[in-house]
Every structure is written in structure tokens, then in C-alpha cells.
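Appendix B. Chain record.
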Amino acid sequence: MDQYIREWMNKGKRSEYLFLGLLTLLAVLVRVSVRTYVSDDWTVFWSSWLLELKTKGFGALAGNFYDYAPPVMYLLYIITLLPVNSMTALKGFCCLLEFAGAAVIAEIVMECTGNRKRAQFAYGIFLFLPTVILNAAVWSQCDIIYTLLILCSVYFLLKNRTWTGMWFYGAAFAVKLQTLFIFPFLVILWVRRKVELRHFVTIPVMYLLGILPAWLAGRPFSELLGIYAFQGSKDRWSLSIKFPNIYQIIGNNYFLDEYVGAGMYLILGILMMVMCWMAYQRVRVTKEYVILSIVFMGMLTTYFLPHMHERYLYVTDAFLLIYVMIRLRRFWLFLAASFLTVVGYAQYLTNQEPYVHYGILAFIQLGLLIVIGLDLYRFPVYEQDRGELDKMEERRIPG
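C-alpha cells predicted for this chain:
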């Protein structure tokens, strides 16, 4: 009997491997079929940066012709040394990371649910998500790099390997400033004593290690420290760049200077109130709670911050996929969020205005944010705290 059970299990494993293998093959074929598309970002930025690096070598990093974090430029320098087409090399590398990201997402879903089928479907859904395919294989963008590092960070934090998780988060920050969108969730973990203050040293350490080669190449240290501020100063021509947030409702081309400062103070105030409430909310910090907090923080910060781009929900969408695989009844949230994100991608890549006005999309995004916020608000409290809440309800004066 045991032999028959083992054979049946082996057949089940073989079918799973076949399923995952076919998904992977189809995902590769999709990316290969769109690899020749040349985006404006490639023409204007990436190709000129690669030409500078190919002409002057590693010493070109001493210049200020780039506004991306230096670790991304190191990747471009390595690409210039390869005997392959530069665009194909960049797209291919980022596409490989997409498969790694899908695998980490599957591992996190497995960690949170213990359900192999959900983990496998999460793997496939991420690989066939339109924005994921468009980001690297079509657009030549590299958002998967910092997203993969954040996914690894959260995976190790869920496994209680705090130092490893924080080193990955620090590496993500060294690659992309948008890593800060979900930073408040780390503050909540610190308040709940899941992370210690000493663990946050990984962020400046990894950032300094990331800029060290560029500094040795000759670029001034002060410029490297302020490269993220230099990035932000280039987008002052619009409050929202094809992104469905509050500025699409109130007008994203008016009061640019005034709204920038006001928007920064507004989101800081909102985050302080939200984090204060979350700090005193007596809930069990489960794996689901961690994922939900990341999704909420990512949606909240991008909704009120000025100068958001269409790609800035990339990492949040990855964690939203994990969340809806934990709570399947919330899968419609993922579908709606994916639709909103792909609208901005489509407008950039086609240079065509969307059929639906961004103001309407911004209201839909607000609705999604409210639903996620209510899920966080209604998250189960400790059992002992539930008894205290019931007593408070009993003592409440009628009327």
C-alpha cells in the first residue's frame, strides 16, 4: 500500500513539475516575442548611458550623466563588456530576475498558506502579469531588481532571519529610492519588537557600499549621497505622471511648487497617524498582517506623494498578489489594481490617451486603498484583547 501511495505522490510531483515547466516555457516565449521593441526610455536614456560607459570605460562613472543609483550603472558597465546586443542583454537579465521573483513570491505564498497549488498559481500569475511583461521585455526597465530584493527581504523576515532580511532591504534601497514606499512597515515591526533598532544600520551601510565604486571612479561623494534628491528634481513638470493618485483629481499641472511641499507634509502627517494607530492596535503580527501592511503602505504613500510614475506600484502589485492568494475572496482587488497600472504603461508605450480619464481611475484607486485599509482595521486582535473589547461594548450606554 505504501508503495502505491509513493508512486501516486511521485506522479503528482511529476505533473506539478510539468505544469511549472510549461508555464515557464510559455513565459519565456512571450518575452522573446516582444524583445525587439525599442522604447523612448531606451533611446533617450539607456542607450546614451551605455555609449558613455562603452566609450570611456568604468571611469565614465565619475561623470554626472546618469541619475540612477550607481549599482544599476555597474550592471550597464558589465553589459558593455559582453559580446551581445546591449538591449537584449539588459532585457534578458531583468527577465531572468522576473522568474526568480516569481519563485520567491511562490515561496512566500507557500510560507503564508501552506498550499502548493496557490503557490504555483502565484508563480504563473506574476510571470504573465501584463505590467511585468511590459516592464522589462518591452519597456527595458529594471524595476524587478529592487522588487526582487524586497521580496527576498520580506521572505527572510517572515522566516525570522532578521539580519538577512534587513541586508536585502538595505540592498534594495541602494538600488532604488522607491524602496521607501514600504519603509513604514519596518517601523511597525520595530515598534512591535520584531526588528531591533540596530538592524536598520544595514540601510546606510548598503547604500555606502553601493556608491563606493562610483566614488573610487572619481564622482564627488556629495553628489553620490544626493543622487536620489537629483532624481526627484527632474520630475517637477507634473504632479502625477500617468499615475492614478489624488493629483489626477485636483489637477496635476497646477500649483506645482505649492502642491509638492503640501503633498510631502500631508503624506508624512497621514503616515504618522496611521503608524501611531497601528502601533497601539493590539493585533497578532502574523505573516498575513505583514503582507497586508506592505500593500497598504505602498498604496497609501503613492496615492499622496507628488511626482509618481506609472511604474511605482510595481513592488506593491507583487505583494498584493501574495495577499490575494492568502485571501482568495480579495482576488478582485488584484484584477482592478492590475488594470489601473497597465493603463499608464499603455499610454507611455503607445503615446495614446486612455479612453478612461485618469480622474476616474484615481477614484477607483482610492476605493482599493479604502478596502485594503478596512482589511487592516478589521484585522483580528489578540484573544485576550477581544474579551476586553466585549466588556467595553457591554458597558456602552445605550443610544
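Further analysis of this model is presented in Appendix C.
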